[in-house]
Amino acid sequence: MVRKNGGKSKDPVLVVVQLTGGNDFMNTLVPYTSGMYYDARKTVRITEDRVLKLNDTLGFHPAAGPLKELYDAGDVAIVQGIGYENSNRSHFRAMDIMHTAEPSRIATEGWVAKAIRQLDPEGKNVLTGVSFGRGLPRAMSAPGVRVTSVGDLDTYGLMTAVQIQEQRAEELDIFKRIYTPAIGTGATMNYMKQTGMDVLSGIDQLRAVPAGYKSSVEYANNSFAKSLRDVARTHIAGLGTRIFYVQHGGYDHHAVEMPNHEKLLGELSGALRDFMADLREHDAADNVVVYVFTEFGRRVQDNGSGTDHGSGGGAFIIGERVEGGLYAEYPSLDPKTFANGEDLAHTIDFRGVYATLLEQWMDVGSEDIVHGKYEQLNPFKAA
Questions:
Q1: DSSP 81
Q2: pLDDT one-digit tens code per residue, 299-313
Q3: Tens of pLDDT along 109-160?
Q4: φ, ψ for residue 171 (rounded to 5)?
Q5: 141-171 as b/e, with b when 16 or more CB fall inside 10 Å?
Q6: Is residue 333 part of a domain?
Q7: Is residue 377 in some structural domain?
Q8: CB neighbourhood size of 363 (10 A)
Q9: Which residue range is the domain that position 213 belongs to?
Q10: CA 209 to chain centre
């Protein structure tokens, strides 16, 4: 699939944004007319007068103003009630499930990596998949799939080849220590041997990116905004990257959620708005879609200061080719429907959302990646 722009063909690009820790969906998209919401959320709640209303029942957290701007422009599809049967509440296992699209067993290949394998079967371009930020996400790892992981593009451009090689070795060591207990030494070492240090072949291309970039958009001074700026700079440089991956951490709010969640949603929303504005300024937005996800939602009942691990989370699909609006159904707020008697029940399987992105946007076969067929959404405008 290609996107036509001014007579030129552009390959579709996907930017995956991971909200690590379990974003509180109920306080992101607030059911502000629900008495049950206010009964359950005695402390950790957004009052109706502060909600940025989308319709007669739902509204954004007040810190998500920039995201609402994008939504009002028709560029944001809100996917409600994402999850899967018997949702896992462990951070590690839940994120592992999201990374591999395999809830029933421990898998060794990430869903993004398997998409990259289809996009670049011979591994000709180590920049087909690029992760910005510390550490290589499991979603991008699979034997034989070459990807590039960069902490910071500005710092990267100043490092020597030896320093980059040392940083890569450190990140692979972290990967080994994290994942060996889950997938075994053999699978981990096999992956590491095949990816190794081949990232060095992309150094010269990435080093030249900052110098060739100019923009009037001023991103905020936080690590997430910097990562999205790195994505913009690399995409604008036209290096053939098809899937980018960035992470925004800190969403595990068991305590002091109100100020912390507000800060994070402000960072997230502002960076997404600036990212899209930057792409538009460079005529580079029409073939990019952003997918924002988290590993699970939070418990319906607050704990007095924060919220505990739950289910029934949500996601955002953002881009100029997106048909904005609400997708799937907001989880029922009837306690009789709660999962485990205390969680929001999911209304759409996350694997169906992956399949939507893979097939309808990236033109990649999804069945082998998500291990079956799942209900899809239709969040994209007609070509």
A1: E
A2: 999 999 999 999 999
A3: 999 999 999 999 998 898 999 999 877 788 998 888 888 888 778 876 545 5
A4: -65, -40
A5: bbeebbbbbbbbbeebeebeeeebbebbeeb
A6: yes
A7: no
A8: 13
A9: 3-370
A10: 23
Does pLDDT of 373 surpass 50? yes
CATH code of the domain containing 230: 3.40.720
Bridge partners, residue 380, by sequence: 322
Tokens for 335? 């306690």
The pLDDT value recorded for residue 183 is 53
Rounded CA Rg of the chain: 20
Q: Which two tokens mark 231?
A: 């994505």
Alpha helices per DSSP H over 21-160? 35-40, 65-72, 91-100, 111-119, 153-158
Whole-prediction pTM value? Answer: 0.90
d(Cα 300, Cα 149) in Å, to the nearest integer? 36
**Between residues 154 and 252, which one has the greater pLDDT?**
252
What secondary structure does DSSP assign to 1-42, as a single string? --EEETTEEE--EEEEEEEET---GGGTEE-TT-HHHHHH-S
Q: Give the C-alpha separation, 53 to 71, whole Å.
A: 11
The number of residues in the chain equals 383
Higher pLDDT, 196 or 205: 205
